[in-house]
Write a structure and sequence with these properties.
Helix content is 37%, strand content 17%. The protein is α/β, with parallel strands linked by helices. The chain starts with a strand and ends with a helix.
Length: 326
């Protein structure tokens, strides 16, 4: 039996989506007998042309999240037996102007979607948009590492509310800044931020923890409650709620804005709460702060749901998708 050979093309070694949706899953593909090469897309046009001209020797080219200008994309498409495009963000718009579909972004997005043999979308919202231009769309959520949980996960002396994210998303914490100050007068807690940029709220105890890949899971395990505040716009609806999955994988209940995948993962407010406004954010945070048993119950429910998003399960789903489309 001939083994599949895949070329994975990622945007950057440091990009979370490259790690989460490609490199974290490669060992599963190897177990399934799928051969692969993984390369970061070269920056120079000359090197890209050289790369694309070698694509014919692969059964599938897997392009992750990167849209290309027409001449480059035409060359890639011409030399690809099968082209799969994977994306997990609203790349048809921009973070700084979420309600305005950037014409250039949208044009490139539409082209790569239309001429791919298969499109893999990170959630239902992204899949619905992709299906406007290509009927061959499947949904593959982002995968999260799952590790055993221990009793000491639930025994902090001081209740800790936490958030994890990058400097590009840290401004979303301003949505709940006043809420956190307000509830601290009714239920004491410490607020922790894991990021590559410090964030502090006056009037409440805050602790900044510099994000590191090697320690992020350990630091999340110290939370009692995770939060994920978001505005409701086309950019945030496309998010795959990875930080919520991280909370769930550590058996931590969460309070998140009622946007996109946050709603799905809350499982009707049994694994976490979704809040439509600041009033609800305050209500749900106070509920969890004052009820440790509820925190444990919801955290364990989230941990159970997170098994469906494990690297093992999602990696095998990706292997099935690749095998079915070779």
């Amino acid at each position: 039996m001939r083994h599949l050979k895949i070329l994975f093309i990622g945007r950057s070694k440091n990009l979370p989506s490259t790690r989460i949706r490609i490199t974290n899953l490669l060992h599963i593909l190897k177990k399934r007998g799928i051969k692969y090469d993984f390369i970061i897309l070269p920056k120079s046009i000359k090197d890209r042309i050289r790369l694309f001209s070698k694509c014919k020797k692969y059964d599938i080219i897997f392009l992750q999240k990167k849209t290309l200008e027409f001449p480059e994309f035409f060359l890639l498409r011409l030399n690809s037996k099968k082209l799969i495009f994977d994306f997990d963000d609203s790349i048809f718009t921009t973070l700084d102007r979420p309600f305005n579909f950037n014409r250039k972004c949208f044009r490139k997005f539409k082209k790569v979607i239309k001429y791919s043999d298969l499109v893999i979308a990170g959630n239902d919202y992204l899949a619905k948009i992709a299906k406007k231009f290509n009927p061959n769309v499947v949904i593959l959520p982002s995968a999260v590492p799952i590790k055993p949980i221990y009793q000491n996960h639930f025994h902090n002396k001081t209740t800790i509310i936490g958030w994890i994210g990058s400097k590009y998303n840290i401004h979303y914490l301003n949505i709940v800044k006043d809420v956190l100050v307000s509830i601290h007068n009714q239920a004491k807690f410490e607020f922790r931020v894991i990021s590559d940029r410090p964030y502090k709220i006056d009037k409440i105890p805050c602790k900044f923890i510099e994000w590191r890949l090697e320690t992020q899971e350990e630091e999340i395990s110290k939370f009692d409650i995770g939060i994920n505040p978001l505005p409701d716009d086309p950019w945030t609806r496309g998010k795959c709620a990875y930080k919520v999955l991280q909370y769930m994988s550590m058996a931590k209940p969460f309070v998140a804005s009622a946007v996109g995948m946050n709603v799905l993962l809350s499982c009707n407010n049994t694994a976490g709460f979704v809040a439509k406004n600041s009033k609800e954010f305050k209500k749900y945070l106070l509920l969890l702060l004052k009820d440790k048993d509820l925190r444990i119950k919801m955290g364990l429910k989230g941990y159970e749901i997170a098994q469906d998003y494990s690297i093992e399960k999602i990696g095998n789903k990706l292997a099935d998708i690749l095998s079915a489309n070779s």
